[in-house]
Amino acid sequence: MTKDWNLSAAPESTSHVQLQQEYGLFIGGKWIKPSDGKYFETSNPATEKKLASIALAGRKDVDSAFKSADKAFESWSKLSGAERGKYIFRIARIIQEKSREFAVIESMDGGKPIRESRDIDIPLAAAHFFYYAGWADKLEYVFPGRKVRPMGVAAQIIPWNFPLLMAAWKIAPALACGNTVVLKPAETTSLTALKLAEVIDEAGLPPGVVNIITGDGSTGALMTAHPTPNKLAFTGSTEVGKQIYKAAIQGGKKVTLELGGKAANIIFDDAPIDAAVEGIINGIYFNQGHVCCAGSRLFVQETVYAEVLAKLKRRMDSLIVGDPMDKNTDIGAINSKEQLKTIEHYLKLGSEEGADIYQPAGELPKKGYWCKPTLFTNVAQSNRIAQEEIFGPVLAIQTFRTIDEVIEKANNTPYGLSAGVWTDKGSKVFQLTKALKAGVVWANTYNKFDPTSPFGGFKESGFGREGGMHGLEAYLAFD
Ligand code: ADP
Q: 266: which residues sit within 8 A by CB, 6+ positions away?
């Protein structure tokens, strides 16, 4: 859709990318074929073309991954923090060196615009490794007066929306604290995690410190039920999170969960409106809305509603939906056929619930999975499109008159991951940050991430924090 803009295509080259046709499991520093010989395909959601065959790890493979992590823990946990830090710095630097290849693979496998994988996902992943490398030899300063030690083996399961970045969020703090890991990427986006395994190999990490195994929910369930890990770390849907929580309780394991969200993005009438409109766009259409902290519920103060809506629609009309590999693209492909079905179900539901739908005009590509940026007006608090996580480029708009009203509406959700506030008044920002039940509240910005800043939720959005010094706590035992 290039309604207002007739930009020439600016495709990123894919010729420098090195992909294998078939990937095994990275266990004990070696590439292993899956024990029961099963593979699945990963494809490009923008073209529906197959990219590679990926091993489906079964019971024996999960077992050998944990055995190798357990064995590696003996020596890795005894290494000095400074030595551990050197390895982690090395991983960070190699990711930077290969950042272009990582960015292209991330966009090919997951459908996100190359501009986002190039400017956000990959640099932030490297930054996480740099940040936690720096903490490896300073753990006693983080928790003064307390004796800390590594927890042991961590089982880590990640989703498909930020594949390399989520792997970095999980692996970097675990290694800095002296743990070893078995990580499983999501089944639609395994490729950058497998590339990361190559980086880990190149960085010379002792075998078994990081094991990367691939597979679907069945592999994930085997991991969480396994007796070896004493820590489960999961990012994904609230539904699966609840199952993992159960497995953790039954197995007496520590657990951190980063689950769904339905964030309120709140625009007061004293806000810088043009900036706020950009913040709304970034909040909900970034990464096709496949973002757990997406600003999917917009609350606009009644006095500026007409202005905000008109400007928002105008800005939506200019968004370019299409080839993720084109550097002009704003909204790429939906990650999978299944996810597109879920989003389309909600689009239908919104209209059936009586809300009004708006989508820009224009054609979508014929092949691949696509959804236009969408907004709903005339939305009621009780509507499912205002209550449930859609995980797509779909915004539900409501209005408010007073601060108390918007606080009540914003908190009327089972989730509590993030929120946004747009106002000229610092006092209002502080009032809202106190009153909103959300792990992160952005003021006059949205979707800002930094490795130094903790991230995590309340209520059905999970618990535990990742990032910052708080992120270390999740991987340490205290005497
Ligand atoms: P989504 O619904 O957004 O696809 P999921 O929560 O299903 O997210 O997936 C997140 C991760 O959890 C993926 O790596 C997936 O393979 C894994 N997973 C799915 N089901 C289970 C399960 N029952 N136990 C453990 N992991 C699972």
A: 299, 400, 406, 410, 419, 420, 421, 422, 432
Based on the residue annotation, tell me whether 292 is a catalytic residue of this protein. Answer: yes
Per-residue pLDDT band at 5 (split at 50, 70, 90)? low
Domain ranges for the chain, please list them: 22-259+461-478, 264-443
79 CB less than 6 Å from ligand 1? no
Of all protein residues, whose CA lies closest to atom 21 belonging to ligand 1?
Answer: 217
8 A C-beta contact, residue 315 and residue 375: no
* Among 105, 121, 77, CA closest to 17: 105
* Distance set, CA 86 to CA 223, 280, 391 (Å): 29, 40, 38
- Return d(Cα 345, Cα 341) in angstroms, integer: 6
Q: Assess whether pLDDT exceeds 50 at residue 2.
A: no
DSSP string, 200-235: HHHTTPPTTSEEE----HHHHHHHHH-SS-SEEEEE
The model carries a pTM of: 0.97
pLDDT by residue (tens digit) across 28-84? 999 999 999 999 999 999 999 999 999 999 999 999 999 999 999 999 999 999 999
* Cα–ligand 1 centroid distance for 30 (angstroms): 25
Q: Residue 41: beta bridge partners? A: 53
Q: Is the Cβ atom of 464 under 6 angstroms away from ligand 1?
A: no
Q: How far apart are CA 128 and CA 166, in angstroms?
A: 10
293 is catalytic: no
Q: Within 13 Å, how many C-alpha atoms sit on residue 13's CB side?
A: 4
Architecture of domain 22-259+461-478: 3-Layer(aba) Sandwich (3.40)
Query: Are the C-beta atoms of 237 and 260 separated by less than 8 Å?
Result: yes
Q: Is the pLDDT of residue 437 over 60?
A: yes
Gap from CA of 273 to ligand 1 centroid (Å): 38
Instruction: Indicate whether residue 220 lines ligand 1 (CB < 6 A).
Output: yes
Catalytic residue among 101, 106, 292, 371: 292
- Domain 264-443 fold: Aldehyde Dehydrogenase; Chain A, domain 2 (3.40.309)
pLDDT at 3 over 90: no
Say if residues 407 and 435 touch (Cβ distance below 8 Å): yes
**140/11 Cα distance (integer angstroms):** 48
223 CA → ligand 1 middle, Å: 12
Position 401: which residue type? R
Q: pLDDT digit string (tens) for 192-232?
A: 999 999 999 999 999 999 999 999 999 999 999 999 999 99
* 124 C-alpha to ligand 1 centroid (Å): 23
**Helices 163-176 + 122-135 axis angle, to 10:** 0
Q: Which residue has the tokens 């294998």?
A: 20
Ligand 1 proximity of 240 Cβ (cutoff 6 Å):
yes
Q: How high is the pLDDT of residue 479?
A: 84
